[in-house]
């Protein structure tokens, strides 16, 4: 666990340029938004979740995280099939603020090929360090 | 970009800064939802140092002609407002608060976004002298349902002010009993270093620091308009149902308003409340729909933690100004049920 300025970045997972995190376990990838992203959005009021069994391509907008500031699209970080969405967020979207890397996960993707183009923690820290 | 001179103390208190109207200001201190509720339940303070603050001196008749509301019978120490400076078309140059200092000087608080425009407009339309005090003093509001549990009680009626008073251990330039949240409280203008002391003291006393996002959600619950969102140079006070003018006096823009009162208006400002538990927030320019046609448009919206639902305001075609009726608001292809409501929404 390391801190770059005010934002938490975990070393046990990968990141996207659009501020999602990805934790890969076998052929399942868990996806959420980073501490940086949740702090930029501030209080999260609601989410739109993807439907399980939907086929997604890397870069597709698949979920929406809604705050007073903006409705932010969350993109699929890789090709695959949505295997699960975190339905607890429907009633408790603030879990994304409280625990962005844990209980605030958003969806899971069953990988259909090897993910590409994801950033290591160090690179992501550089990116948000600006 | 300008920056509040209270930045150091606000960073110490956990302020999260963002840009508003060309100023770097605290947007929240972690959670606007909690800050909002602190005002409705206890008390919070806001940094308002971005607000334009002008001292105007000159002939009373000239000043009076610029202001849409009666000021001539207001005594020194009274605030007149909200009122407005209007164009000849009767639309908003700015909505402002006027403080009557004496028979030939007034303080005016403008929206941050309009400060320079207002200075130029006053100079163009009168021989009045304008002094910009915005960068000389910091300004805060302390607001809340229990504000007097935290603050020294002021000997002021609502919308009254006093200059040069000592208050809670600091030397103020101006102390008024006013705000923009629907709760009681004070607004204080003073040198930044004086206000810094006060903020630290207030924080110790349990007054919550609050940012501009909470200020925005509080004003929306009350139905207060924000310049640039809900009113602008294409909107009149009649369309906004914002009673900031007095037809019994002469003022710039009066003829246009008189004509509009005669002919009627095509749009009127209205509030909306979504259903409890709804978690999609309408956005500016979201369409208000009825029977498959657009009958209005959203200008401001937020999520009210007090009502546990999204709320907002916008303009309806007058043909469909159906207070109390439920319509749809279109957001990202979704149709959300919204009840047309009058202000305040709480």
Considering the chains and any ligands shown, give keywords for the structure:
heterodimer, A: about 130 residues, alpha+beta, OB fold (Dihydrolipoamide Acetyltransferase, E2P), six-stranded antiparallel beta sheet, three-stranded antiparallel beta sheet, globular, B: about 350 residues, Gyrase A, domain 2, Alpha-Beta Plaits, Elongation Factor Tu (Ef-tu), domain 3, 3 domains, six-stranded mixed beta sheet, six-stranded antiparallel barrel, 8 helices, 22 strands, about 35% strand
Question: Would you give an account of this structure?
Answer:
- The complex is a heterodimer of chains A (130) and B (346).
- Chain A is an alpha+beta fold and 130 residues long.
- Helices cover 18% and strands 38% of the residues of chain A.
- In chain A, strand 3 (14-15) and strand 4 form a beta hairpin.
- Chain B has 346 residues and is of the alpha+beta class.
- Chain B has helices at 7-12, 32-41, 60-66, 115-125, 147-150, 192-205, 212-222, 254-263; strands at 2-3, 16-20, 23-28, 44-47, 52-57, 79-86, 92-102, 105-110, 129-132, 138-143, 161-163, 166-167, 170-171, 174-176, 185-190, 208-210, 267-274, 287-290, 293-304, 309-317, 326-331, 334-341.
- Chain B has a six-stranded mixed β-sheet with strand order 11-14-15-10-4-16, with helices on both faces. A six-stranded antiparallel barrel of chain B has the order 17-20-19-18-21-22.
- In chain B, helix 2 crosses helix 7.
């Amino acid at each position: 666990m390391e801190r770059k300025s005010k934002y938490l970045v975990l070393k046990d997972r990968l990141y996207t340029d659009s501020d999602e995190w990805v934790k890969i376990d076998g052929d399942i990838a868990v996806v959420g938004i980073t501490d940086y992203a949740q702090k930029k959005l501030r209080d999260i009021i609601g989410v739109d979740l993807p439907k399980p069994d939907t086929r997604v391509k890397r870069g597709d907008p698949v979920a929406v995280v809604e705050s007073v500031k903006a409705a932010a699209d969350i993109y699929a970080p890789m090709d695959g099939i949505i295997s699960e969405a975190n339905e607890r967020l429907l009633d408790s979207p603030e879990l994304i603020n409280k625990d962005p890397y844990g209980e605030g996960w958003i969806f899971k993707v069953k990988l259909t090929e090897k993910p590409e183009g994801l950033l290591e923690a160090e690179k992501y820290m550089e990116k948000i360090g600006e | 970009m300008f920056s509040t001179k209270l930045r150091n103390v606000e960073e110490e208190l956990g302020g999260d800064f963002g840009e508003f109207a060309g100023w770097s200001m605290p947007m929240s201190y972690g959670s606007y939802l909690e800050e909002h509720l602190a005002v409705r339940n206890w008390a919070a303070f806001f940094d308002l140092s971005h607000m334009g603050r002008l001292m105007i001196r000159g002939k009373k008749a000239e000043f009076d002609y610029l202001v849409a509301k009666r000021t001539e019978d207001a005594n020194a120490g009274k605030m007149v407002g909200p009122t407005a400076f209007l164009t000849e078309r009767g639309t908003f140059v700015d909505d402002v608060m006027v403080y009557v200092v004496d028979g030939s000087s007034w303080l005016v608080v403008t929206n941050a976004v309009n400060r320079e425009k207002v200075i130029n407009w006053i100079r163009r339309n009168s021989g009045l002298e304008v002094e910009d005090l915005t960068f000389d003093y910091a300004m805060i509001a302390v607001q809340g349902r229990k504000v007097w549990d935290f603050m020294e009680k002021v000997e002021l009626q609502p919308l009254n002010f006093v200059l040069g008073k000592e208050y809670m251990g600091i030397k103020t330039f101006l102390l008024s009993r006013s705000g923009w949240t629907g709760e009681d409280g004070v607004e204080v203008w003073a040198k930044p270093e004086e206000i810094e002391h006060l903020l630290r003291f207030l924080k110790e006393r349990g007054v919550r620091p609050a940012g501009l996002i909470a200020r925005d959600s509080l004003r929306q619950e009350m139905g207060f308009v924000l310049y640039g969102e809900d009113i602008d140079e294409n909107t009149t006070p009649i369309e906004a149902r914002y009673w900031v003018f007095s037809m019994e006096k002469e003022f710039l823009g009066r003829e246009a308003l008189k004509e509009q009162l005669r002919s009627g208006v095509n749009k009127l400002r209205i509030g909306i409340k979504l259903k409890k538990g709804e978690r999609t927030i309408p956005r500016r320019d979201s369409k208000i729909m009825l029977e498959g046609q657009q009958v209005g448009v959203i200008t401001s919206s937020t999520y009210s933690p007090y009502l546990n639902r999204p709320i907002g305001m916008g303009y309806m075609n007058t043909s469909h100004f159906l207070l109390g009726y439920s319509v749809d608001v279109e957001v990202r292809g979704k149709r959300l049920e919204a009840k047309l409501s009058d202000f305040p929404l709480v």
